[in-house]
Amino acid sequence: MPFKPSNPLFLTTALLLASVAAAQTAGSGFQMTPEMRARMAAMQPIIDLSQTVRLLPELEKNKATAITRTQAKTLLTILTTLQKAAVQPNDAKKYLTQIEDKILTEKQLTALDTLVIKAEKEQQAQRAARQNGQTARVPGIPGGLLGGQRPGGQNAQRQAGTGQAGQRQPGTFNPFKEGRGADALNSYIALLKKK
Length: 195
Fold this sequence. Notes:
mainly alpha; globular
């Protein structure tokens, strides 16, 4: 079959490829560069550790999964260390392994996994709502709307040229030292010290 631009097969294929390409770029809205993906992958152990530590207080809501006095002593050593210096990805892996393999019981790990899955589903729902142009209610944020411009919030910091989370390098980021994560960790440490 000779190539002719007016050939129906050629036109159909070209139209199909163009529509797929347009759907991929229009639907996603944001494409990460390879450098951004590499940075994100390097920081993944820190993100995983941060999520686990953030969800640990939720275990206290059920007596069957609450941290024991012995577990609290070991956990306090790790949590206070996390507050002191920037967390390196390899250190984050080590701490996460200690928490999951040596401190928590199977029942606690199962409960924690359930909490992680629930948190990921909530994040996906919020992401989908943002992509559809809807605003989502976020508990604890004044006004409760995602994407809102808050004076002194992340948007203001980015505009001022400070606090650029996307520009941080692995080893300089410590989610346990500043912001809401640090406040929550301090509260949890205080609770564990009472055990």
